[in-house]
Structure formats: structure tokens, C-alpha cells
Amino acid sequence: MMSLHTRNPPLLKVDQLKKHYTRGLFNPQVTFSLEADFQIDEPCVVGVMGPNGSGKTTLFELITGGNQPSSGQVRVAGQDIHAVRHAERDRVAIHYHQSYQLRSFKRRKPGFLMERALTDSPRVHLFDEPQFNTQDGYIGFMLDFFRTLRAQQRLVFLCLHPNEPFHLDILRESCDRFLFVHKGQVTPAASFDQLLSEPRVQTYLGRLAPVTEPA
Questions:
Q1: Could you tell me if residue 158 is inside a domain?
Q2: Whole domain around residue 184: which residue ranges?
Q3: What's the domain count of the chain?
Q4: Residue 86 per-residue DSSP state
Q5: Distance separating alpha carbons of residues 82 and 88, to the nearest angstrom
Q6: Which of 57, 61, 204, 207 could form a disulfide with 67 if both were Cys (CB 3.0 to 4.6 A apart)?
Q7: What DSSP letter does each residue of 146-211 carry, written as one string?
Q8: How far is CA 197 from CA 46, 132, 169, 181, 211, in A?
Q9: pLDDT tens digits, one per residue of 58-78
Q10: Is residue 214 one of the residues assigned to a domain?
Q11: Would you call 115 helix, strand, or coil by DSSP?
């Protein structure tokens, strides 16, 4: 007998995503490339780290449809974010940037030829290096907000550039899984310990890298 059960699509599927930046009109040379391929099935909080200029903000722009990929796809709950009308993309995924100013990109297709968003409020929330202040209770407010979003079946990305030990504590205690972005390569990690086992992460953290005890 045929089963009527259908599995829900992943909350986020970044499928062989590539973005190439080039310089030069007649003989263009690639100046930077970002590549990502990962999938997140369930609501959670994802910690994101990586050096400045490694591609973290570009990744967030691609996930929210603010930047056009060179190839590949981003699907939020099954819907291709880059097929959604530009004015409605923040109903699917939203990018909170520390400068509160997002870059604008050339639109390649008029809105009336594109899809309507399938949701009224975003399923994916991306926080790009929020400024945590230890003096005013803002950290507690934001961490509660992340937990609330996850409880509401949302996916949260928290990008931090650690420069204090408490930034690592925030990532360790608040995030369920992780991404490390380095020279345009996105490496997933299923736990904080797995993240720290990556030599490039240890080099990136430098003095902040936790000292591991010998077995």
C-alpha cells in the first residue's frame, strides 16, 4: 500500500552554492570566491565564525537573497529564495547587520514575474556580528530572543568575531551547531568541540583558543 507520509523539506538547504567576484571587463579575473554546501533540517541556533574578509557577510546575503549567486541554490523550507519577489524576501529570511545598512544589488528580473513568499514572517534570522555589551543586560535579552525564535520553529544564525573570552562562552552555550568560514570555504561542525578541533579555528582564535588538557 502506498504511504501518504511526506517528509517536510529541510528548513534550509544551501545546495552547491558559489559566488565569484571578478575584476576587469574584457579579461575578467576572479578576485574572491565563496563556496558552501550544507543542510539544516530542524530549528536551531547556528554559530558562525571566521576571519574578516572570509565571506561570512556574503554568505548571509546569499541566504537572504540580497546577493545573486554565480551558481547553486538556497532553499528555505523548500522555496528558492532567489525566485521570490525582492520586496518579499525578508518574509522568508532576514539579515540583521551590525551597521544596519545592507548593500543593494542589481535586480535581474521584474517582481511580477517572480514567486510570492510562502510565509508572512521569516523562517531564517541571520545576526551579523551583533555588538554585545556586558554592562546593560543586552546579552541576556538577545540570548532569550534567540531561544524564543528557535522555540517558534525558526532557524537562527549568530555570527561573531570573538575578541573576548565571553564571546566564545556565548557561542558555546547558545549554539547547537556551527559554521567556520575561511578563505571562501564554509566548513560545518556539529558541536563546539568539533569546531575547536579544526586547526584553522585554533589559529584564527589565537590567544582565545581554549587550552585542551592532554589525555
A1: yes
A2: 12-21+30-100+110-208
A3: 1
A4: G
A5: 11
A6: 61
A7: HHHHHHTT-EEEEE----SHHHHHHHHHH-SEEEEEETTEEEEESSHHHHHTSHHHHHHHGGGSPP
A8: 17, 26, 16, 15, 11
A9: 999 999 999 999 999 999 999
A10: no
A11: strand
pLDDT per position as a tens digit, 35-53:
999 999 999 999 999 999 9
C-alpha angle 10-55-92 in degrees, rounded to nearest 5? 35
pLDDT over 80 at 112, yes or no: no
Q: How far, in Å, CA of 17 to CA of 50, rounded? A: 18
Report the 10 Å Cβ neighbour count for 115.
15
CATH number at residue 164: 3.40.50.300
Nearest to 84 by CA among 56, 57, 112, 60: 112
Look at residues 141, 179, 197 and name the one whose alpha carbon lies nearest to residue 34. Answer: 179
Euclidean distance between CA atoms 122 and 94, whole angstroms = 6
Residues paired with residue 9 on neighbouring β-strands, in sequence order: none
Looking at residue 132, its pLDDT comes to 77
Q: What is the pLDDT of residues 81-111, one digit of tens each?
A: 999 999 999 999 999 986 544 555 556 677 7
The per-residue pLDDT for 214 is 45
Of 131-135, 154-158, 207-211, the one with minimum mean pLDDT is 131-135
Contact 118, 149 (CB under 8 A): no
**What is the length of the chain?**
215
29-40 β-sheet, strand order: 79-80, 71-76, 12-23, 29-40, 185-189, 177-182, 45-49, 155-159, 124-128, 93-97
